[in-house]
Design brief:
Blueprint (H helix, E strand, L loop, with lengths): L7 E5 L10 E2 L23 E3 L15 E9 L4 E10 L6 E5 L3 E8 L2 E5 L2 E5 L3 E5 L4 E5 L5 E9 L22 E2 L13 E7 L2 E7 L6 E6 L4 E4 L20 E6 L6 E8 L2 E3 L16 E8 L14 E4 L9 H10 L6 E3 L3 E7 L4 E2 L1 H4 L10 H4 L17 E2 L2 E2 L3
Parallel strand pairs: 6-14
Antiparallel strand pairs: 1-16, 2-15, 3-22, 4-5, 4-25, 5-12, 6-11, 7-10, 7-12, 8-9, 8-11, 10-17, 13-17, 14-15, 18-19, 19-24, 20-23, 21-22, 21-24, 26-27
GO molecular function: homogentisate 1,2-dioxygenase activity; metal ion binding
Protein name: Homogentisate 1,2-dioxygenase
Cofactor: Fe cation
């Protein structure tokens, strides 16, 4: 897809500049962060996991139901990211939301989203994603009622398709499967219509007497779009070993350093596992990227227990992680006799970044924090049976094995 000049022309019934001055939105939204430092978030190398968050009973729309989990960097400096979640049960009424800080990538987990944008309308179901670029005004309706999902926000850059490299021209997410809206507009008087703008992590409101969704036509390449994750064409090893998760990248926000992403959006879709003489689950590892995982539906291959749709986990830079004890023992018990196996009825995903995340206090103190997460690895036992060598290690000379 590449980074090039992005712009769109919007042909409006009335200019968007026709509004009253912005004022701080009251009551203040205390759980949105766009600049991460010691005053509002904490660094922790501990593996973290959250159980699915309950949807509130009190009327809550998308704006009020959005809250930050973690992130790094600053929207003021135009570099960084934030990871949010949302829980809502009410459609937005007579108002629109605008994010001046960055681009939103929204992953609904429960309930469809009917999103009206200045370019048109998009229905986004669980199993699909939607990207709302910085500056676009939008409104979220909830046709199914209660809704829950995940949001990644990036500052100062945009998402694009990854370089396919040796894969060639086809595979992973195909450009043809990304859908943009068709122009749709509403006209007439709308007294007291509110534009809620997120600016520097704070919310401001401006009133106007008409809908911002008054664009009768548009053209350009800076536009909201959606993607059905079931269209993804996964790649995997077909003989031995386990591929790195980057092979499942749907979209990436690159940095100036080749091969290093500000944010990757990676999925773990239904697929076949066929590797021989291989520990097939994701192996135990540490790496330079920090990984926030969510589960849309089904289960996740590396966690037999405790990781449910609507839940989340965070494994930060250089913190070890991998399959839980049950998954490990079940895999070892199969030995080398495991035949081809299809992982079905699942969709997990990962937001992965080279920047180390700081975690918000309400996320660390959440009643949905799984404080026993570490227990899933405590039961791991050694299957090492020793090496066939002399007790005095005389089989080795100067670090090199002796030929017999």
């Amino acid at each position: 897809m590449g980074i090039f000049s992005l712009c769109s022309w919007l042909y409006r019934i009335k200019p968007s500049v026709t509004h009253e001055p912005f004022r701080p939105r009251l009551p203040r939204h205390e759980k949105l962060v766009s600049e991460f430092d010691q005053s509002n978030s904490s660094a922790t190398p501990t593996q973290l996991r959250w159980k699915p968050v309950e949807i509130p009973e009190t009327p809550t729309d998308f704006i009020d139901g959005l809250y930050t989990i973690c992130g790094a960097g600053s929207s003021y400096l135009r570099h960084g990211y934030a990871i949010h979640m949302y829980t809502a049960n009410k459609s937005m009424e007579n108002c629109a939301f605008c994010n001046a800080d960055g681009d939103f990538l929204i992953v609904p987990q429960q309930g469809r989203l009917w999103i009206t944008t200045e370019c048109g309308r998009l229905q986004v179901s669980p199993g699909e994603i939607v990207i709302l670029p910085q500056g676009f005004r939008f409104s979220v309706d909830l046709p199914d009622g209660p809704s829950r999902g995940y949001v990644a926000e990036i500052f100062g850059t945009h998402l694009q398709l990854p370089d396919l490299g040796p894969i060639g021209a086809n595979g992973l997410a195909a450009p043809r499967d990304f859908l943009v809206p068709v122009a749709w507009y509403e006209d007439g008087s709308r007294p007291g219509y509110a534009i809620v703008q997120k600016y520097g992590g704070e919310l401001f409101t401006a009133k106007q007497d008409f809908s911002p969704f008054n664009v009768v036509a548009w053209h350009g390449n800076y536009v909201p779009y959606k993607y059905d994750l079931s269209k993804f064409c996964p790649y995997n090893t077909v003989l031995i070993d386990h591929s790195d998760p980057s092979i499942n990248t749907v979209l990436t926000a690159p940095t100036d350093k080749p091969g290093v992403a500000l944010l990757d959006f990676v999925i773990f879709p239904p697929r076949w596992l066929v590797a021989e003489h291989t520990f097939r689950p994701p192996y135990y590892h540490r790496n330079c990227m920090s990984e926030f995982m969510g589960l849309i539906t089904g289960g996740y291959e590396a966690k037999a227990d405790g990781f449910h749709p609507g839940g989340a986990s965070l494994h930060s830079c250089m913190t070890p992680h991998g399959p839980d004890t049950k998954t490990y023992e079940a895999t070892i018990a199969l030995g080398n006799e495991a035949g081809p196996h299809k992982i079905a009825d699942t969709m997990a995903f990962m937001f992965e970044s080279c920047l180390i995340p700081r975690v918000c206090p309400w996320a660390l103190e959440s009643p949905f924090m799984d404080h026993d997460y570490y227990q899933c690895w405590i039961g791991l036992t050694s299957h090492f049976s020793g090496l066939s060598m002399k007790a005095d290690n005389s089989d080795f000379q100067n670090g090199k094995p002796v030929e017999r």
